[in-house]
Structures are given as structure tokens and as C-alpha cells.
Amino acid sequence: MKQEAFSxxxxxxxxxxxxxxxxxxxxxRMAARAAGAGVKLRPHLKTAKSAEVAALATSGQFGGITVxxxxxxxxxxxxxxxxxxxxxxxxxxxxxxIEGFIEQGAVIRIVLDSAGMVDELAARxxxxxxxxxxxxxxxxxxxxxxxxxxxxxxxxxxxxIAGVPGLVLDGxxxxxxxxxxxxxxxxxxxxxxxxxxxxxxxxxxxxxxxHACPTVSIGSTPTALTGIxxxxxxxxxxxxxxxxxxAQAALGVCSPDDIAVSVVATVIGQHRAAGHLxxxxxxxxxxxxxxxxxFRQHVGYGLVCDLEGRLLDGMHVADAHQExxxxxxxxxTIDFDRFPVGxxxxxxxxxxxxxxxPYPEYxxxxxxxxxxxxxxxxxxx
Amino acid sequence: MKQEAFSxxxxxxxxxxxxxxxxxxxxxRMAARAAGAGVKLRPHLKTAKSAEVAALATSGQFGGITVxxxxxxxxxxxxxxxxxxxxxxxxxxxxxxIEGFIEQGAVIRIVLDSAGMVDELAARxxxxxxxxxxxxxxxxxxxxxxxxxxxxxxxxxxxxIAGVPGLVLDGxxxxxxxxxxxxxxxxxxxxxxxxxxxxxxxxxxxxxxxHACPTVSIGSTPTALTGIxxxxxxxxxxxxxxxxxxAQAALGVCSPDDIAVSVVATVIGQHRAAGHLxxxxxxxxxxxxxxxxxFRQHVGYGLVCDLEGRLLDGMHVADAHQExxxxxxxxxTIDFDRFPVGxxxxxxxxxxxxxxxPYPEYxxxxxxxxxxxxxxxxxxx
Lengths: 381, 381
What we know:
Two copies of one chain form a homodimer.
Chain A: E1 15-19, H1 20-37, E2 40-41, H2 51-57, E3 65-67, H3 70-78, E4 83-86, H4 95-103, E5 107-112, H5 115-122, E6 132-138, H6 152-162, E7 167-174, H7 185-208, E8 215-218, H8 221-224, E9 235-236, H9 246-251, E10 261-271, E11 276-279, H10 283-286, E12 303-305, E13 311-320, E14 325-329, E15 344-348, H11 352-356, E16 361-365, E17 373-376
Parallel strand pairs in A: 1-16, 2-9, 3-4, 4-5, 5-6, 6-7, 7-8, 8-9
Antiparallel strand pairs in A: 1-10, 10-11, 10-15, 11-14, 12-13, 12-15, 13-14, 16-17
């Protein structure tokens, strides 16, 4: 199908459309933030899972990225990227794949947060092939993973890493995922400060104890886009900023007009009695993520735009079955004559990472008079 | 990776495990129901998206299936299936793909519910290649799609279909999706009766008006597994019964022990202070579907079993980020010493259709002493 010249009016539905100009602007905004704060930008490609997006996100940067699956690691290695942090807690079962890439010359940092996992890694019969840089994960208040910056575990883990041939302590990593629930800019900035301070404190303690700690890595999109000073931090790892989404707009991190990603869908039915349009983008095509609903009403599974990308007042995907989306209007009744069966709509997603994940490729939009271009991506694990 | 002999202890995580014996028992149960009711079984393969599962589900049946995406249509055609109903409202843009398979000898039924869509199809410049059988969708109370069985639209649509060369009215189709919210067996049976009666009434009205109506198609797993008589119905189209899931168990349609599908995950961290285990199966690996939560507490994103598949009292996936699952225990505190980092768990999903969709293949379990076998599936659209 890649040989056909599709437009948003003819591309098979559902498809994910990327607005290239918005994507470039979003990448520039984060690059400027990193430059202004004097830190490296190691974009998290778990959002886009795409080499073409990685090229834009790393343009003018040092070239390292962050990933969250072995599938992403394989895909980006095949696309020439040689510096990756696998930012999900490591397990011994994943080491053969990672070491395979290290043996081929890649630098792959792994992440852990327990002495137990250091012991599990050390106990592997195969030993280590090459030297594996390790980041200790720090809990900066999100209470997902990580050890306390001020606790005894941090130094215990560092000591054990130093005792395992093949492991090299590279530094600390934290992620303020709880910034996605910050109710206002003040709360978001407080979380950003806590994220920075936790990482810097942990790094300082490691250095005092005699460990080298070259990497001090923090980041989420909401915290990265505050204006706080980042003294002591060496890199940020935001991800969703490349696309943005309704959740980020609800947080005030971007405007809805910055959102570079949408799902194009076809109207497959009108149920005038029930008051909805049916579209061929449902729970798989949009995901069941409803995160923007934490902050505003009538978002449902996404906000509805016309084919040119203009928001349609009050129209949202109110319910979603596997392949059926239900479009309702919170600003009165739907103008059914405007949206006949066979017409098309574009849906802005709640959470871009969740929505784009299952798609096999992107359809990249430059302007209404140019055909869509296909960009590759990976899926699965 | 398919050459390696994996077990549930060594397969990469997250992976989807299918229990072949449970799958066979589930298929036999539905086959017996269809035989007992004297109707054909046209299983909906939107759940499994797999040729090997289709072979079990159609074993002893007439061989037709139901699909919900063009990707499924392509995949099952390539795997030799020649009788498919594409059970999502058609749009003109999908006709070239469908007609391509019809030209190659397949019977592909399409579904619509408006005179407007008949007109859209008739207006296509390309005309029709071959004869396309059409089912008119009936609303049996779920108010998703479909026309009323007793209304004037039904006959109007039939008349218009009869006037379009290339379209052939084949009958009626309905789906009682609202059975997924039936609070008890009585409510479920009432919905099953309404589903049957709507389809039979609509078919009768079409025949009275002079239209042939060979197909009277109904079905959802919850309604199919009531014991009501199905006089006047010609086929049922249940899907999720092949795997079952926590939502079906919550409805009383199956027991948790019948669930043939689970996600195997590795413990990647223990956050003792916060009271959870972290696993490497998160919102993408499990989906964000929480449907069983409509009926019972402490299900979250899935119930947790040991590696042999035995439910662990009170343990459930309480929260899910993109690649992180948070396992908590509603029956006291987690026994952290029992689940060290690197150990494995299996998660029963809320809604099997949503959970398995993004996986590239199945890992099929026969017994603990035999290696897993890989079965193919399709993904995307």
C-alpha cells in the first residue's frame, strides 16, 4: 500500500496521522529547553517508536535515546542508534538481548532499584559479555519504582554493583510520573523541583561514598517543560512532547493546537434516535485511556476535529467498543446532515503513547495538497 | 525466536499464554450450544485474530467466520478461509479490498444500517466487481448501530439494496453488546430473548415484503450461552468464548478456571514502602480495560496467578503505566519474600479481546513438561 499516494481523505481508516510541522515545532521547543538548562536531551522513544521521529527528536542533540521494550531496542539498533537507556527495571531474562547489542558496539544502560536484582544479575551462569552500565532508579515521590535518595539502600546497591565484574555504575535515574496528575502549574513545578533534587541528592551521596556518577537523568514531559534550573542534572528523558496529547493540554503543558497526532476515522453510521455518530475507530484504535478526563469533562476517548484538524465544538468520542467509536456532542445535538455516512473525522487522543502503540506505521501530513508519507514504527515487545 | 524451546518460565515477558486444553473445552461448549439450538456457529475471530484458533473454533462447523477489520480479512483469506462476514458497518473506502477477495472466490458479507450507505455504495465510480451479499444491521436494544426491527427504515434499505446491481440482500444481523452489562442471569436471558426476537421479527418483515432473507444472524458470548430457544435464527456469532476473561466470569458466563488466556510477566521491582510489586506488563500489555470492575472490587487491570495458573488470593494489577504494572493485594500485605525480583506471575485479563490485540503471536501451553508452541495472529487494521 505504500506505493499509493494517499491523502487524509483517502487513507484507509483508522490510521494515525502525524502533522510534521507541529512535530518539528514540538521537538524544537524541547531542544531549546534542554539547551537553556544546559542538559542533554535523551528523548524517550516509547511514545513514537519510530526511527523517523527519533531523527527529528535527536536532531542537534548527542544522539542517545530512551526505550521501554526490547522490541524498541532491536528496532532502533537496526536503524543505527547506538546509545540507548532501557528505562524499565531490568530482569535477568532480558540480558542476553541487551548484551547482544553491547557486543555489537552499542552502549545500552540498564536500570535497577534493588540489591536483589544486582545479585540476580551476578548469579547468571553466562556471566557478562562486555561492560554493562547501570543506573540506579530513584523514587522522587511517584512511588512507582526506585529507592529513596536519602536511604541506605542506595549505597548498598552501589557497593554491590561495584563488586560485580561486568557491571559499571553509571549514575542515577528518576521519573516524575506523578506530574501527570498535577492540578496546576505550581504543583507541577513543585514536582519538577522534587524530581531534580532527588536525583542530584542521590548522585551527591554516591560521589561522597567514592562512586563515579557521571549520569544524573531525570524527566517527564510535564516536569521538563517547567522553567526551573537544572543544576546538577546531566540529561532529561521526556517522551510524549514530540506528539503532545489531550492529557498534556489538560495539564497546561501545551495547547490543543500543538497536538501533532490524530486518528482519522470514517463515519460508519448515524444513530439519530440515540444521538450519536458511529466511527470506525474504537477502543483498539484510540485506546481505552481516558486520562484527560481527570481534568475536564466531555473528553471521553478523544476530541473530534474535522478533516482539516479544526476542533468541532463539544464533539467527543463518548464511548468505544473494540472497533466502534461513539461520537456525541456536549454542546447540543449533533448536526447529522454535516457528517453523513462515509464522511471523515480526526480524533485527538487522550494519551498519545497508548493510542499510537498498536499501529504499524504513521501517515505523515505536510499540507492538504501533498500526499501523505509513510514513516515506520515498531510495535509489541 | 521461534526455534527456541520456551516454557512459561523462560519465554520473553510480557507474552500471551493460551491454555490449549481450556481453549478446546471452550470451543466444544459453544459448538454444543449451537448444535443444541439448531443454528450455525460463525465464530467472531476479532477476539483471537489467529488461524490456529479459527481452526479449533470452526472444527465440526460449516467453516464461516466473522471479522472486524480488513487486516483480519486479509489474514484469514491468506490462511484459506473463504466465508467471512465483515461485521462492522461498511464504508465505500473499504470496498476495493473486500471486492478483491470476492473476485478471488471468497464470500464476504458486508453490513450496513442506512439507506444513505446504500446510496454511497451505489455511487462508487468503479461499480461492483462480483456480487456482494449485504446484511442489514438491526438494533436489538444496545443502541450502538442498527435500525429498529419494526420501523420503516428496514424496508426502505431493503428496497434500495434490491435496486443496486451488485448488491444482494442476504438477511439481517444483530449484536446484543449490552449483554456485557447484564447484572444477573435473568437480565442476560431477557437481552438474549430481545436479540433473537428483533432479528426474527426483522427477517419476517423483509420476507413479507417479498425479499429473500436467508441469513438471520445474532450473537454475543453472554447471550449465546443462555439456554433460550433460537427458532428462526440461522447463525450465532460469539467471539470471546474461545478465551473467556474476567468480564465473562463476572457475568457468570464462565468460571475463572475456564479462562484460557493469560499474560506472563516478570517481577521487576518491589516497592515495600508503597506496598506493591512492579511487573513488566503494563497498560499496553494488559490494556486499560477495567470492565470486570463493573461487577466486583479489586480486579483492577487483571487478577494475578502463580506461574501454574492458580489465582493468588487478593492479588491484582491495581494500576498500570505504559510498561509497568502495579500488583497489590486486597487480602492483606503482599508476601514480598514469595515474589522476588526476577520471579514470574500470570495475569488473567479483564477483556481478552483488548488484551491480546497488540501481541504478534501466541505462546500455547499444553502442560508444564512440554515446550510452548507458537501460534500466529494478526494485529492492527
